Amino acid sequence: MLRGLYTAGSGMIAQQRRQEMLTNNMSNLETPGYKADQSSLRKFPNMIATEMSKHNQPFSRPQIGELTTGVYMQDIHPNFRQGDVQETGNSTDAALFQSTVPETEDGGPALLAYEVQNDDGDIRYTRTSSFTVDGAGLLTTNNGHYVLGTDGEPIEAGSEEIVITDDGTVTDTEGIELGQLNVALIPDPSQLVKEGGDLLRYDGEEAIGTAVGNDEAQYQIQQGFVERSNVDPRQTMTELMTTMRTFELNQKALQAYDQSLERTVNDVGRIQ
């Protein structure tokens, strides 16, 4: 009976974590470039139930069947599907479209992302396409992270009156080149980890290249547009309701086990 408590309890914990993930997706529905998280549930290894009898030796007990030992959320990983684009008219917004990219070892597509610098000076990556210009005239994300050019340095835009071409070249209104956005080619997107503030950290062993001047990676940058979040609100709401109902079913099962234990202790074990 205690195994049943553990099984129901593990189900409740797994569904609670899944609900937190889905709720976070819904809260970032309007966040430019946000990639929805998705998860996978795995069950713990099953146990073999055998018949308990003093007449049977430990190694000759007949098997009754398998007994599940619960479920857990194995991992959370982003879905890097391209989101819809929205026109903003802002000169500092630059939506990134990837058309042709090489395949990963798993057969999926590689990922293109802008290269940025975090507050500690480390290289990070982002799919956000909503930029701004700080007080020093440097091009940054809306969270204040420097957008890097192909030379590895922050792009000095000077002001928001800039022009961004299809290949990411940044010029002023007079056509003077200020830099070029570095579009990183990430060979294994499954090794990207969200750090918050639209930043992605790469933990893979394979080296990251660049899509600039790379014939194997075709992309296009469109000024005045942003890539919206790829969260599907209808699907997410459906999954939220399913998760809540599954949580409640496990909760009722746990309450039933608890009531049975209470009767066992207070009624069955009572000395008349």
UniProtKB/TrEMBL annotation:
Boundaries of every Flagellar basal body rod protein N-terminal domain copy: 5-35
Domain of life of the source: Bacteria
Residues that span the membrane, as ranges: none
Alphabetical keyword list: Bacterial flagellum, Cell projection, Cilium, Flagellum
PROSITE patterns: FLAGELLA_BB_ROD
Cellular localisation: Bacterial flagellum basal body
An annotated GO BP: bacterial-type flagellum-dependent swarming motility
Chain ranges of the Flagellar basal-body/hook protein C-terminal domain: 222-266
Flagellar hook protein FlgE/F/G-like D1 domain span: 115-171
Main location (coarse class): other
A GO CC term assigned to this protein in UniProt: bacterial-type flagellum basal body
Family of the protein in this entry: Belongs to the flagella basal body rod proteins family.
Name of this chain's protein: Flagellar biosynthesis protein FlgC
